[in-house]
Specification:
This protein has about 350 residues and is mainly β. The protein has one domain. It has four helices and 17 strands. A hairpin with a 7-residue loop joins strand 5 and strand 6. The longest helix has 21 residues.
Length: about 350
């Protein structure tokens, strides 16, 4: 989780901390937020879908006082049609295409020769931001890496119910502060349906889960003149699913169906000082911008997950595939005592 979130956040930070790039983008005033949102949209969506993966590897719940520890990795594929976006001039008041194609790369796209210009300024045309699709294999968003795994714990409660907790403690690295917390409840539904409860190999359960991640980046004080600068990202995701499980002892097969959604806020906060006339002088072109970017991203939709788990005593190895707007794969290992 941490590796890809930091990669995206640092790409944002680079865009905002490169003096020439920042000065020209921010010279577009409100248009800067429109352009940045189009550029980052697939990465933010992919992260929210990923946060809803890995909550279960079986439809069965623990006995009372049973528990498990799970470590998983998940990757959501960015659709091909979200690797580029169409620059529609009528959506912008100040920013325009100076030369090249009006189809520009998102963060998941490739390179571009297109040049942008800010109307009513003396600033020179500047290149549109290239995509960073090469950062991920085949434009997958990979949120969990081996050096920084997300740990998930499950505890058996009365009435065949599991409480699930996932977390990553507050960590500071290279000016970035990060933490994650999530919880879920999985309840055995078969016990309430007599016809299902009589089938020993089949278990049906319901899951409701929520995850929140907070990331704050503090730019180097020498990057751009100003004060109290920070880039903050707050991600929220939730999922509600019904899970069916067939237990063949050594191997399990599970199917989950339900709804998934999330929201993200990305804000560039503080004051930023620029010379928008590009002539090196402070007066009269000097200008100060407060909280220049405040973006909101939302996803929602139906999700179907198909997976299998191999049971090796207390150790379980599992993998599944989720069909949703950003289809994803998840794999991991769990250590479980029922």
């Amino acid at each position: 989780m941490l590796k890809s979130i930091l990669s995206i956040l640092l790409i944002v930070a680079f865009t905002l901390s490169s003096h020439a790039q920042l000065e020209t983008v921010f010279a577009a005033r409100d248009d800067a937020a429109i352009y940045t949102k189009q550029y980052l949209n697939p990465a933010m969506n992919g992260l929210m879908y990923n946060l809803n993966n890995g909550w279960y590897s079986t439809g069965k719940t623990h006995n009372k006082l049973g528990f498990d520890i799970t470590i998983s990795a998940s990757a959501a594929k960015i659709p091909d049609n979200e690797k580029m976006f169409q620059f529609i001039a009528s959506d912008y008041n100040h920013l325009n295409i100076s030369s090249g194609s009006s189809e520009l790369p998102t963060i998941a796209g490739g390179t571009t020769n297109s040049m942008l210009v800010v109307n009513d300024t003396n600033l020179d045309p500047f290149p549109a931001i290239d995509g960073a699709g090469g950062e991920w294999p085949d434009n997958f968003i990979i949120p969990v890496s081996a050096p920084t795994p997300m740990v998930q714990l499950g505890f058996g409660l009365p009435m065949k119910t599991d409480l699930k907790l996932r977390f990553f403690p507050n960590t500071n690295r290279d000016g970035v502060s990060y933490n994650l917390f999530g919880f879920g409840v999985q309840h055995n539904l078969s016990q309430h349906i007599k016809s299902l409860d009589k089938i020993p190999t089949l278990t049906v359960s319901g899951l409701a889960a929520y995850t929140k991640a907070n990331i704050v980046y503090t730019p180097d004080a020498t990057s751009v003149a100003g004060s109290n600068q920070s880039i903050e990202m707050h991600l929220n995701s939730f999922t509600i699913q019904a899970i069916g499980d067939i237990d063949l002892k050594i191997v399990n097969f599970y199917l989950g169906m339900g709804f998934t959604g999330g929201s993200t806020n990305l804000d560039a906060l503080g004051t930023y000082q620029f010379d928008f006339d590009n002539n090196g002088s402070i007066d009269p072109s000097f200008e100060e911008i407060v909280d220049p970017i405040q973006l909101d991203f939302d996803v929602s939709g139906f999700k179907t997950t198909i997976g299998t788990r191999i049971n090796l005593g207390p150790a379980k190895i599992f993998a599944d595939y989720s069909i949703q707007a950003y289809s994803s794969i998840t794999a991991g290992v769990a250590f479980s005592l029922r």
